């Protein structure tokens, strides 16, 4: 008997979104919140020297950002370009170094104003600074984890996902909302205004260039100055 040919069903291509949206925001920030709780519980119970705590803190900050970004990126889009992970010009990267220095100065001023208004003078970065001041090996470890890895992780989730997704509502909603969330996750302390300034600068750079790399450079320069300047001052005064 001749078999009756069965109709061949054409495969319908899955159309993936061209940019992140609310599903990516919710998934990414939820994952970040879970990671942050785990990290806080771990650091509160771990017995570490100040330098080791600073280094581990930077490493875990990088892991939190990268992990949250992976959750958001794999949810629907599964491509890097829609999140701003794309090439940019050497001129933009060079300019980002200058913007990083400017952002560090503005952030320092904003932090001083915050401390004057709130009378909150706690140094929540003491462990990070201890890691940077622990000698050559510790400084290099801090540089890799704090000046490179942490900026990459945090920029991918807060600019690559959040600022990009909010871009559909206009530049300033995207810039201010993403910077506000970025500041709040750093806690109510003198680092909050610093994170807000960095968030604003980097979200504007993302809108300007379409790439997260200039913001990563700005973030890395800011972290490098924030950790290195106290060490240099201490060495000069000793």
TrEMBL record:
Q: Where is the signal peptide?
A: none
Alphabetic keyword roster: Membrane, Transmembrane, Transmembrane helix
Q: Which Pfam families match?
A: Rce1-like
Q: Does the keyword Nuclease apply?
A: no
Recorded source organism is: Saccharopolyspora shandongensis
The protein's name in its UniProt record: CAAX prenyl protease 2/Lysostaphin resistance protein A-like domain-containing protein
Tell me which residues make up the CAAX prenyl protease 2/Lysostaphin resistance protein A-like domain.
Answer: 138-225
Positions of transmembrane segments: 25-44, 50-72, 93-116, 128-149, 161-184, 190-206, 213-236
């Amino acid at each position: 008997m001749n078999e009756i040919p069965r109709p061949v069903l054409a495969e319908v291509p899955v159309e993936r979104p061209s940019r992140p949206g609310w599903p990516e925001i919710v998934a990414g920030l939820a994952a970040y919140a879970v990671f942050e709780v785990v990290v806080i519980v771990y650091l509160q119970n771990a017995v570490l020297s100040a330098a080791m705590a600073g280094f581990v803190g930077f490493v875990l900050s990088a892991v939190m950002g990268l992990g949250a970004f992976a959750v958001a990126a794999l949810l629907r889009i599964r491509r890097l370009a829609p999140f701003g992970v794309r090439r940019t010009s050497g001129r933009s990267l060079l300019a980002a170094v200058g913007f990083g220095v400017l952002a560090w100065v503005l952030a320092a001023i904003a932090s001083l104003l915050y401390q004057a208004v709130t009378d909150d003078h706690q140094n929540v970065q003491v462990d990070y600074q201890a890691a940077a001041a622990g000698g050559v090996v510790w400084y290099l470890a801090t540089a890799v984890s704090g000046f490179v890895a942490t900026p990459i992780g945090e920029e991918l989730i807060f600019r690559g996902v959040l600022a990009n997704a909010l871009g559909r509502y206009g530049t300033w909603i995207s810039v201010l909302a993403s910077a506000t969330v970025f500041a709040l996750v750093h806690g109510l302390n003198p680092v909050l205004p610093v994170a807000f300034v960095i968030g604003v600068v980097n979200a504007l750079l993302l809108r300007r260039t379409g790439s997260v790399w200039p913001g990563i450079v700005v973030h890395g320069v800011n972290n490098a100055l924030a950790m290195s300047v106290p060490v240099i001052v201490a060495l000069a005064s000793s």
